[in-house]
Design a protein that fits this description.
Elements: E1 2-8, H1 11-18, E2 26-33, H2 40-54, E3 61-67, H3 77-91, E4 98-105, E5 108-116, E6 118-119, E7 124-125, H4 131-146, H5 161-164, H6 168-177, H7 181-194, H8 198-207, E8 210-213, E9 220-223, E10 228-230, H9 242-250, H10 261-282, H11 286-316, H12 318-351, H13 356-364, H14 366-445, E11 456-457, E12 466-467, H15 486-512, H16 518-529, H17 537-547, H18 572-588
Antiparallel strand pairs: 1-3, 2-4, 3-5, 4-5, 6-7, 8-9, 9-10, 11-12
Length: about 600
Amino acid sequence: MIPKGSQRGGGKDLATHLLNAFDNEYVEVAEVSGAIAPDLHGAFAEWEAIATGLTKCRNYLYSLSVNPDLGQGQLSRAQYMDYVDRVEKALGLEGQPRAIVYHIKDGREHCHVVWSRIDYQTEKAVHLAFDREKLMMVTRQFAREHGLELPEGYGPSRFDERRRQTSLYERAQERVTGISKQERAAQVTQAWAQSDTPKAFVRALEDLGYMLATGYRPYVLVDIYGGKNALPKLIDDRSVRTKDIREFLAKDFPPESLPTVDEAKALVAQHRKAREQFAKAQEDRKQDEALARAQAARREKVEAERAAMLARQEQEHERESLAREQLAARQGLRALYLAEVARVRQQRDEARPTGLAAFLGRVTGVSAIIHRVQRYKDAKRYLAFRETKQGLAAGQRDEAASLQHRHTLQALDMNREVKALAAVEARERKALAESRLRERRIVSRGENGHMPALAPGLKPRGRGAAVRRAKDRYRDRSGRDERVNPERVIQQQERAEERVMRAQIAQEEQRQAPEIDLTDAHREARERQHPWKKVDLAEEFAKAAADGTGGEGGGDDGAPAPRISRAERPSERARTKRRGRDDDFERER
């Protein structure tokens, strides 16, 4: 049983991850409490709004995943809830809003629990101190009571646990490439142990698919998939220190002569692009079609609910019926007022004095007083009617606004569900693409288990590194460069046959030709071009001694040699250069 908890924000992304139906065979939202919205996206949005309005907390969620050991059997829902309640009590999250989601992935059931850390009454976030230690304590107690065995590292002593833990970046690398952190470390450590020189070590790294670069640290490895790792962290040998690695590589590969991380990523991206395009063009699209059908069915269901809601609102005519009811209420109130006025008038007419009583009333002023009292009562009755009418109108306006607000909320809620569904679909497509990319890369590695080799040529400072060896091997084969042209194929075949025929004719002529001594042939050709004259050296020396002009003479007759001007004399430097080039050419031959 392995629990993993962390404080985080990004509720929308977390809800999309929890509802991803591609990576999980089964998704069940078991509980959403402490929120008005019944779905994860709405609930997490509410908790984010509360955190933004009441506090400055950014990591307003606490996410926990509970992964039981399949070898010891699945946990029941009651056991899951027991463990969740214990964790909730230990972390001080009792009474906080929470959501519980169950997943089944690769036949393994596990549980996700998300709490809101914001206490709206105190307007503060629940402080989570030593949450990992508390999780450890609860996990050990739960395992002891239920007879479960904990994996290595969850006992009382945890030696070198931090070094063995895998970070989020390393898990993302493993998800994309299919190579775990332990496999990378084992390969690089083996290359380090088997290399006696820096050049041999760098060459071994290139064969493993890594390019040596520099970044915030002097030596960083960039793999063919664009991931980067610090070189000392991949050498799993406690006797090797970072200082030793830097001293080992500093002479032949100083950091200033290496490409930067961004330059190395650009180079490996060019190297990787053609390989993945070729593999992508040949892969099967059945998974895409199946995912599209599943998403279409799910979207069709949501769209049907949306259309039914709109149709229900239109067919029920709630607004029209409410308007009619309100109009009838106002008309009824007015009718009651008019009826009361008519009754009062009739009563006054019946009680009005006549004859002598009427005359005495007018003379004494009693009639005037009675008339004023009646007018006062009429005005008071009218004011009461107007206030009642205004109150009724205000209530009716509130009812209409409430109805409009309810319809708007229903539409917004449905639109939010559609947007959340679009986000989930995008995450599922991304997961499918990552899965296929990981499968292609695993297949491309073959039996040796390491990445395709890189052979970068490291150039002097000021010039970037360039991949030389594989520039022609991994060219674009997505179909653009390999279109079959029948005429071109026929021409190539004819040219090949012609070359073979010419080679056969040349071999036959060489076989029939007589053997020639190249030395003799060269000497005869020179003699034909410049005939030599036979000279008797004894006779010539005697003639020169008798004349006494041997030092000034030249040629055969002892005549003085003509003087050559400096301008007509060939350049000695040019002659030396030409002789040097001829010597180089002879050596290369």
